[in-house]
Amino acid sequence: MSFIALVTLVVRDYDEAIAFYTETLGFDLVEDTDRGDGSRWVVVRPPGSAPGTGLLLARAKDEEQRASVGAQTGGRVGFFLHTDDFARDHTRMTAAGVRFLEEPRHETYGSVAVFEDLYGNRWDLLEPK
To answer: Which of 14, 70, 98, 105 could, after both became Cys, cross-link 120 (CB 3.0–4.6 A)?
Structure first.
């Protein structure tokens, strides 16, 4: 076991999620394959990520899953997006309409600000020291 390859993120709609992660956050669309049963295998990842890693965007298929969209981590920050230039990416993301929940903070471990994705899942934008 050498690495975690994918983390599933339950989404409301494939196309709106792809648009947010690729157009707004600047992720790469790695795969979008029709599985033949109305579902798709959709993987996105930030540019420069290790091959084989990413987010699997999985459309909710029932009421229980739809209820979890945007609340998969119980309101906690559940995803951590590392950057090598916090100011650049914070500025770009803000201009693209990303909703930051706080002003940037400069902690002992690095520069950080919490933002929400299109469903309300919380992320850290983080430039580690």
So the answer is: 70
| DSSP result, 83-112 | -S-HHHHHHHHHHTT-EESS--EEETTEEE
The token pair at 14 is 């494939």
CA trace torsion 109, 117, 75, 128 (10° rounding): -10
Stated pTM of the model:
0.93
Q: 54-87: b or e for each residue (b if 16 or more CB lie within 10 Å)?
A: bbbbbbeeeeeeeeebbebeeeeeeeeeebeebe
CB atoms within 10 A of CB 116: 14
Residue range 31-78, pLDDT digits in tens: 999 999 989 999 999 999 988 899 999 999 999 999 999 999 999 999
